[in-house]
Amino acid sequence: MEKRLRFSLWYFLGAVALLFLLQTFLIREEAGQITYAQFKQLVGTGKVTDVVIGADYVSGKLTTLDVEGILGPEQIKHWKDLGGANYYFRAVKVDDPKLVEELEAHKIAFSGRVANTWLANLVSWVVSLVFFLVLWGFLFRRIGTGAGAGGGLMAIGRSKAKVYVESEIRVTFADVAGIDEAKEELREVVEFLRTPERFRRLGGKIPKGVLLVGAPGTGKTLLARAVAGEAKVPFFSMSGSEFVELFVGVGAARVRDLFEQAKQKAPCIVFIDELDALGKSRSINPLGTHDEREQTLNQLLVEMDGFDPNVGVIIMAATNRPEILDAALLRAGRFDRHVALDRPDVRGREAILRVHTRQVKLAPDVDLRVVAARTPGFVGADLANAVNEAALLAARRERAEVTMQDFDDAIDRITVGAERKTRVMNKREREIVAYHESGHALIASVLPNMDPVRKISIIPRGIAALGYTQQLPTQDRYLMTRSELEDRMAVLLGGRVAEEIVFGDISTGAQDDLQKATDIALSMVTQYGMSETLGLRTFERERRSPFLDTPIMSPKEYSEEKSSAIDSEVGEIFRRSHERVHRLLSEHRAILDELAHRLLEREVVEGDELRALLPSDGDTQRAAS
Asked: For the segment 376-425, what is each residue's pLDDT rounded down to a tens digit?
């Protein structure tokens, strides 16, 4: 119950109690209390008059106080203390059918009285009314809560956007790192919101909509909040999925209400997260579409066309699937400016780490540049998680500062999984895992195009990893050559081939390696045109997101003969890679055995120790060619 309603109820109860006290002590005259037997004696002696017979009480006046034999001294003293000329009494009535006859026989004046129940009736009606009002308010609030934050069922068409005023937005561009190009593109939006006259004076128009595209965790929402924080304007935040509801027309009504609120608080920023939930292409599903989602999308298109860009309302949206958005959303005049947020490079990762370690106590041995180099492919959210995991590990180990070892263990925990020290392998399995990982590490070390090995471990981690080989990229890569792809396949097959050479048998531990190698070989043939037999043609028309690893495959547009040729070419690539790896491991069998023995003894071997076992670089290069 709300505080105001609770206080009002207490006021009502206090008023009822006051009325009761007034009736009890002020309105009613003071009367002495006597028993019914004493009353009957007084009637017999004729010392009462003006008797009033009520439903529960009998009252009247004494004609004299000379009643010592009937009433007690305390009762007589009560009337004397009042000092009045009238001595009123009152007695509880009992069932006495002959009372009226006795009053008439003694010629005592009497009358009847109807019980005064106005206060009881008032209280009963008012209490009932208050009860139903409270019950109705409670049920109405429950309906409102069930319908979501927006006023309940009666206000289901209202926008559910979270509104942040200027003082609540404490994020600025100083809190955003690693995406400098994106920040520079959005500074123009900030300048327009700060000084719109500067642009209007020259007749320029700011873009109506800004679409932020990037992989999950790259900081799209953070960047939008930073724009609002820099411009010091209100910030409307809403997810694309919050527009669409069960009832038809609700999403369109919420879009209208959102834009109406934004116009009232202009200049401001309206941010729609996960735009692909609302703005998916209307032709992407040929079997049928969702009418409510289409109506909501149509209303959004109309609203973006209808408002004046000089009002000061900037529409910003974020998505990691721009390829499935409706073309009408992306045309000029709507989301006509696209800002790409790519995964940060090593310098960007270092800048992000410096932002997230502002409040973290770092030991002198922590080098954020090295941490950034060890986290290729990490986005801002991953780096924040790595810093937090390192701080938790340091606290668990009761350290005063976060050390470099804590960062290393945190990165391993995120990339591979937590150590499973309770998973005990038998001697045979440990040997297989040791030779398997040694095969990966040895091939990665002797091939010229591979990243250097940093660590080899046979400590079980995560759900299924019985060991891992960690490589440290020396630089960020954006293209892969054919020879580099073939070297990657060789590294993936190194563990399986090592098992064949040493044990003459194979295990199930290479399942993930074979899947990755198959993907590489299939992509070389069907997508990259790297097959000498099939030529430069591509065979898979897939709609792959540039920020996600889940392609949407289209139907095959080639014959069964081509499909058979593709299978043959993929098999040939595997055959050549298998022969190459088998030759390299056989030539370096002594190093393979030594590395496996060291792993069995210590469970973890550093990359420098492996490189010390290898021959000179020139010999290694000639052997790998």
From this structure: 888 888 999 999 999 999 999 999 999 999 998 898 888 877 777 667 77
CA dihedral sign, ordered 146, 148, 150, 155? negative
CB atoms within 10 A of CB 47: 20
- Report residue 293 CA to chain centroid gap: 23
Minimal CA–CA distance to 235: which of 244, 245, 225?
225
The residue that leads in pLDDT, 372 or 307, is 372
Active site residues: 437
Instruction: Map 485-546 to HEC letters.
Output: HHHHHHHHHHHHHHHHHHHCCCCHHHHHHHHHHHHHHHHHHHCCCCECCCECCCCCCCECCC
pLDDT of residue 27: 41
Lowest mean pLDDT among 25-34, 180-189, 559-568, 604-613: 25-34
Comparing 23-32, 158-167, 348-357, 364-373, which segment has the lowest mean pLDDT?
23-32
470 contacts 455 by C-beta, under 8 angstroms: yes
Instruction: For residues 163 and 269, give the distance between their C-alpha atoms in angstroms, rounded to a whole number.
Output: 10
Q: Give pTM, 2 decimals.
A: 0.67
**Hey, is 236 helix, strand or coil?**
strand
Coil, helix or strand for 62? strand
Closest among 69, 29, 84 to 52, alpha carbons compared: 29
| C-alpha 68, offset from chain centre | 86
Sheet holding 32-34, edge to edge: 32-34, 87-92, 57-62, 48-53, 110-112
Which H helix or E strand runs over 193? helix 180-194
Write the single-letter amino acid at 416.
V
Question: Who wins on pLDDT, 147 or 336?
Answer: 336
- Give the 3-state secondary structure of residue 444: helix
Q: Which domains are assigned to the chain?
A: 31-115 (3.30.720.210), 162-341 (3.40.50.300), 346-415 (1.10.8.60), 427-624 (1.20.58.760)
Can you give the pLDDT at residue 553?
54
